[in-house]
Amino acid sequence: MGRSVIVTGASSGIGLEIALSFLRQGDAVVVVGRTLSKLQGAVPPEFQDGRSGGRAFCLAKDVSTVEGCKECIAESVQLLGGRLDVLVNNAGAGKLGLALADITVEDWEWHMNVNVRSILLLTQAAIPFLVSTKGNIVNISSIAGQRPVPAAAAYSVSKAGVDMLTRCSALELAPQGVRVNAVNPATIVTGFHATAWTPDKAQAFYEGAGEAHPIGRVGYPKDVAEMVLFLADNDKAGFITGQTYLVDGGRLLGMATPKGIDGK
Questions:
Q1: Sorted alphabetically, which Pfam families does this protein's record hold (predicted)?
Q2: Which of 37, 126, 185, 214 measures 20 to 30 Å from 72, CA to CA?
């Protein structure tokens, strides 16, 4: 489609699948992550050299820092030839099994900096470019932003912050022609749970988590990427802004929390 796109947190999981989905459509995509070698190993070579579909540019930046956010947008737009059509704020992290009484100031600040402050700073830096293209932003949130998760208060609050920041951004940027929406996934098979817990515990959790989703299974990165592609398409979703879309297999219809989510 020829759009210029930035996807953060794109070295694996949901972010990587989102980036690859844009690339398959022929877009130019800056794939952002903390480690350049990991990015280069994750993105197929044919996209990095432009032989197939779109063109990928790998950029190593830590968006949990103020400077990392500023440099991310500035350098990405330069790689994209001065144009930006879509910003996907996917970078995020969380500590599960962290009881309310055990949350430290450092834990709290880490969650807010990685999950909320980064989106604010990246959005601020991207505004001038998105206004010029009438572009849009898609933030990746979580069902934890709409329903509390046991022993994950810091993470849940940070994702609730993402949802409200999405709405506030949409309201303020709409007069300038910029749309802002969010996607709130339920349990998705990625490296997130293995990092938050251990690989073995994550695998056991996935095996039993399907019963908590009325549709009968957990989700996969492609499920989220398809919603992002829709929301980023100005022809298909041009009248949609300020919304938080559940991609949850019906999870928030009232099903129980999957066993093991509290880290026990």
A1: adh_short_C2
A2: 185
Q: At what angle do helices 118-133 and 66-79 cross, to 10 degrees?
A: 30
Closest of 137, 152, 151, 219 to residue 182, by C-alpha:
137
DSSP per-residue string spanning 203-250: HHHHHHHGGGSTTSS-B-HHHHHHHHHHHH-HHHHTT--S-EEEESTT
- C-alpha span between 33 and 89 (Å, rounded): 12
| Residues involved in catalysis | 155
Give residue for tokens 């506030």.
Answer: 168
- pTM higher than 0.90 for the full model? yes
Give exposure, 144-183, as e/b (b: 16+ Cβ within 10 Å). Answer: bbbeebebbbbbbbbbbbbbebbbebbeebeeeebbbbbb
What b-and-e string marks burial along 119-138, b requiring 16 or more CB atoms within 10 Å of the CB?
Answer: bbbbbebbbebbeebebbbb
- Alpha carbon 207 to chain centroid distance? 24
Beta strand pairing status for 4-7 and 28-33? Answer: parallel
What is the C-alpha radius of gyration for the chain, rounded to an integer number of angstroms?
18
pLDDT, tens digit, 9 for 90 and up, residues 49-64: 988 779 999 999 999 9
Helix residue ranges, H only, the chain: 13-24, 36-42, 45-48, 66-79, 105-112, 118-133, 153-173, 192-196, 199-209, 221-232, 234-237
- Kindly report, residue by residue over 99-158, the tens digit of the pLDDT: 999 999 999 999 999 999 999 999 999 999 999 999 999 999 999 999 998 899 999 999
pLDDT digits (tens, 9 = 90+) for 62-88: 999 999 999 999 999 999 999 999 999
Structure tokens at 120: 């604010």
Read off the pLDDT of residues 170-222 as tens digits, 9 standing for 90 and up: 999 999 999 999 999 999 998 877 776 788 888 888 888 888 899 999 999 99
